């Protein structure tokens, strides 16, 4: 019996940096069930240069135009450009995949809008692990969730909080705790650096109740996250150390691979994990 033929999902990518570009290249190489329909970025000329050697001719459009050309929109832009990608995608009823999760936290009204339009908002796991377990535990009672992030100082040197405080992280000889408090509060201080923590908060007991620390640590070479969860069904602790990308030390090499796997799951006939 012949298999059921499904039309390929058209994917648009907003942002062609450390995450968007490798995902776009993966799609351009050919993926069953998925096709790269358009790309965009804050700098259109730079985006055109980045896709010039692609196998297929990929339209480079304005961020707001992606929604009219794709079924799935992957957002990996700068935080200040988030709504330019998000609002049109959700109003058009698309599958919206945000990487700037801190920006989503500031625009939670988009979730209500998605209910009205039929859009879906899918947050990739990114540089974390254990979101499956936390999400499952959260169907019961979770007593506490804490997360501690340690990054090489170069990965935090351009963080909003660091710049505003005038901190020089270049000559650190010992770990420096930059922040301790809730994930919700951290999101405003580190809008481009705590996406993983916000994702953890949204998967569990909420960013307002999830406790968080972030350290600039000259003793680590990888972006390291340690998570502790205490629930009525289980208690668990997890640590992951992600190799930073060369283009953006704040972003781990695992992140684009997580996006790739999330996209693949949309068309897979077999999937392990939730």
Task: Describe the overall structure.
By secondary structure, this protein is an alpha/beta fold. It folds into two domains: about 10-125 and about 255-265, NAD(P)-binding Rossmann-like Domain (Rossmann fold), CATH 3.40.50; about 130-240, Dihydrodipicolinate Reductase, domain 2. Helix content is about 30%, strand content about 25%. It has ten helices and ten strands. It has helices at about 20-30, 45-50, 80-90, 100-105, 110-115, 130-135, 160-165, 185-190, 195-205, 255-265, and strands at about 10-15, 35-40, 70-75, 95-100, 120, 140-150, 175-180, 210-215, 225-230, 235-240. The strands form two sheets. It has a five-stranded parallel beta sheet with strand order 2-1-3-4-5, with helices on both faces. The chain has a five-stranded mixed beta sheet with strand order 7-8-6-9-10. α3 links the parallel β3 (about 70-75) and β4. The two termini are about 30 Å apart. The mean pLDDT is about 95.
């Amino acid at each position: 019996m012949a298999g059921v033929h499904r039309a390929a999902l058209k994917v648009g990518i907003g942002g062609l940096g450390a995450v968007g570009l490798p995902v776009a290249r993966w799609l351009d190489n050919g993926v069953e069930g998925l096709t790269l329909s358009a790309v965009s970025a804050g700098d259109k000329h730079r985006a055109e240069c980045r896709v010039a050697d692609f196998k297929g001719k990929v339209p480079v459009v304005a961020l707001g135009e992606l929604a009219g050309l794709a079924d799935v929109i992957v957002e990996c832009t700068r935080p200040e450009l988030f709504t330019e990608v998000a609002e049109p995608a959700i109003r058009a009823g698309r599958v919206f995949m945000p990487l700037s999760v801190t920006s989503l936290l500031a625009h939670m009204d988009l979730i209500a809008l998605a209910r009205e339009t039929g859009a879906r908002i899918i947050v990739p796991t990114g540089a974390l692990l254990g979101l499956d377990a936390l999400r499952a535990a959260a169907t019961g009672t979770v007593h506490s969730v804490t997360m501690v992030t340690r990054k090489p100082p170069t990965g935090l040197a351009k963080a909003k909080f660091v710049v505003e405080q005038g901190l020089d992280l270049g000559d650190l000889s010992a770990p420096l705790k930059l922040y301790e408090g809730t994930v919700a509060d951290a999101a405003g201080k580190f809008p481009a650096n705590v996406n993983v923590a916000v994702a953890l908060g949204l998967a569990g007991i909420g960013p307002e109740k999830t406790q968080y620390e972030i350290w600039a640590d000259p003793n680590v070479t990888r972006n390291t996250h340690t998570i502790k969860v205490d629930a009525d069904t289980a208690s668990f602790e997890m640590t992951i150390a992600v190799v930073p990308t060369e283009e953006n030390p704040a972003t781990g090499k695992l992140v684009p691979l997580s996006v790739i796997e999330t996209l693949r799951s949309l068309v897979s006939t077999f999937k392990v994990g939730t």
